[in-house]
Amino acid sequence: MLTFTLRRILVMIPQLLLLSIIIFLLAKAMPGDALTGAFQGNPDANAQHIEEIREKMGLNDPWYQQYGRWVTNFVQGDMGMSYVHKQKVTSLLAGRLGNTVILSLATMITIYLLSIPLGIIAGRWHNSWADKLIVTYNYVALATPVFVFALILLFVFGFYLSWFPISGSVDIRAGDGWEHFVSKAKHLVLPTLSGAIIGTVGTIQYLRNDIIDTKLKDFVKTARAKGVPEGRVYTRHILRNSLLPIAAFMGYEITLLITGSVFIESIYSYPGLGQLFIQSIQTRDFTVVSALVMISGTAVIVGTMLSDIILSIVDPRIRID
Q1: Dihedral angle, C-alpha 55, 57, 59, 60, nearest 10 °
Q2: Torsion-angle region of 86 (φ positive above 0: left; ψ -120 to 50: alpha; else: beta)
Q3: Angle, nearest 10°, between helix axes 273-282 and 286-314?
């Protein structure tokens, strides 16, 4: 197990290095630089003064020198300066990271609370009316973009019924303690449901198909032939094997929730990393954009590694030592 984990970590290092090079080169290929957003729309901006600042910051140096400074500072925790927000990128991200993590965790918990029972029902009672209803829901959710569900929930439960807040992460009038917690929870409901409705599709489909396939395996037929009760056949034999794909994809789902919250946070004006990403693109704050893309890419690579490790723990037979 230790050898397998160390091997996956060593494989991750060149992946991160290649990712950092691609992100840096793409950022350099975009029009403008780190100062573009800072002086955008400023009538008092002086071209000569801007060029002097650019030279002082080393933005006119060869790309490999700039990349070396950027990746060295990034590894040390210095992600640069946001000249639009007039503060360090690390401080800017720290103020929003908590909201994105809370939203991602709430969405992931909701996904499993919904998808596991639905997947079990669809797989156990295959071709029943319940299975057909769940499969229809899956097809509709798969074919519908996430922002469509978000806008529908926003209109129905936010504007029309006024059950939940339509923007922000907490009411500014909320006090401390329980009142703050309740306000935070209410602001989470609609963004969480918007992400969970789409997120359940993969888990339901994997679990349903695996249960249907496992029901036909020889060891299940043997258990039934020995007179094992049907309930125990499902809990001890079928579900135990069918939940393996769910554990394997857990790491992927965590990273997808963190990196895929851009649309949801923008629609609900939720102050997280996703909303900051869109705002940074609009204001050409390339330092923040590069940092967020690097963090997202790192999360995907780490999530892939975690998925492999989780699956190797759940099923040691597939471990490669």
Answers
A1: 30
A2: left
A3: 150
| Whether 214 contacts 242, CB under 8 Å | yes
Q: Cα dist. 203→29, 238, 253, 261 in Å?
A: 38, 16, 10, 18
Distance (Å, whole) CA 235 – CA 299: 33
CA pair distance 18, 249, nearest whole angstrom: 24
The tens digit of pLDDT for each residue in 185-221 reads 888 888 888 888 877 887 888 888 888 887 777 777 7
Q: Are 42 and 53 in contact (CB under 8 A)?
A: no
pLDDT at 245 (0 to 100): 65
Handedness of CA 215, 219, 224, 228 (dihedral sign): negative
CA–CA dist 258, 111 (Å, integer) = 14
Cβ distance 302 to 250 under 8 Å? no
Please say whether the beta carbons of 44 and 50 come within 8 A. no
Residues 109-130 pLDDT 10s: 888 888 888 888 888 888 888 8
Tell me the C-alpha distance between 220 and 235, whole Å. 11
Ramachandran angles phi, psi of 314, nearest 5°: -65, -40
Instruction: DSSP for 146-166, please give it.
Output: HHHHHHHHIIIIIIIS--S-S
Instruction: Characterise 46 by phi-psi region: left (phi > 0), alpha (psi -120 to 50), beta (else).
Output: beta
Bridge partners of 82, per DSSP, are: 87
pTM of the model: 0.76
Instruction: Kindly report the three-state secondary structure assignment for every residue of 63-124.
Output: HHHHHHHHHHHHHCCCCCEECCCCEEHHHHHHHHHHHHHHHHHHHHHHHHHHHHHHHHHHHH
CA dist 207 and 220 (Å) reads 17
CA 190 to chain centre: 17
Distance between CA atoms of 261 and 268, rounded to whole angstroms?
11
Which tokens go with 221? 């037929």
